[in-house]
């Protein structure tokens, strides 16, 4: 396809505003969508977003072509649609966008968490969407960023390499080619099972938040999350969860990176065990804990990251007692049922598929015959 000029960014939170401003500064026409008008009112009046990229990053006023809370208006003229929202909103976005999508558009989830592209594509199908669109997911978000105000964003770091995969994988090159002029950092992530199973947030976020719940509530998060919150005991729990994740991936025929391997790859940090490696990572110093347990580290990462990994494990005969324990504790502290609300093999419609059938589906789109 030709180089896209028109991008839509779905979501005007920390990440969405950062991406929209950066794309605008790179010379692309950007539409920014948010479901509530209040979130975009100020930047709509100002006409754009002021971006601070630190010492070596992009700086300037990113002029937004359009800011809207109308999904039809947001996506009708865009070639690439970047979904930068909590993964718990993916299904709703798919439902709302389904009637307005057209052939040739590319939708990328930033990130998909676990099975995000599978859920998104199933939702489009359930809504009767017949448009020939590419649905892809990134393994992680490309920016470390935050919003400094209603029309301001700050970039701390832009990752140098981010795996991305389309569903099916035969369309990954199409997605990569489309966004390469803006984002050469994205690389082929093999398929969406690989990007899903290398979801490190599933291991680090929920367990540390839940195991430090008392301290979070008594101090309102006034402690270093990865330094004070990671102790030999809590790190051993993370190691159990990580082994389960890697084992589930292995059952799917995937060699997932361990948490230790990921720390070395992402931060060049090593250690004898996870506790030592985390404390050897200088970037974790100074990062405070969430100020409340009503945080996305639980309400997003449990149902959209832990639940689907555990559900896949149960389907394919892997013990996931550690994950199930954290999910149940999340249910208790939030007085909900994340097993019911989360992505499971049943909700994704893959509960009767064999590993080979699931692999064929994510590789070339083959749907098993019933």
Considering the chains and any ligands shown, give keywords for the structure:
17 helices; globular; Rossmann fold; alpha/beta; 370 residues; 8-stranded mixed β-sheet; N-(1-d-carboxylethyl)-l-norvaline Dehydrogenase, domain 2; 4-stranded mixed β-sheet
What can you tell me about this protein's structure?
- This protein has 370 residues and is of the alpha/beta class.
- It is built from 17 helices and twelve strands.
- It has two domains: 6-196, Rossmann fold, CATH 3.40.50.720; 198-345, N-(1-d-carboxylethyl)-l-norvaline Dehydrogenase, domain 2, CATH 1.10.1040.
- The protein has helices at 14-25, 41-46, 71-75, 90-97, 116-126, 172-179, 192-197, 201-211, 213-219, 232-251, 259-267, 274-279, 296-299, 301-315, 321-334, 338-341, 355-364; strands at 6-10, 29-33, 48-52, 60-63, 66-68, 80-83, 106-109, 134-138, 143-149, 152-158, 162-167, 186-188.
- The strands form two sheets. An eight-stranded mixed β-sheet has the order 5-2-1-6-7-8-11-12, sandwiched between helices.
- Strand 9 and strand 10 (152-158) form a beta hairpin.
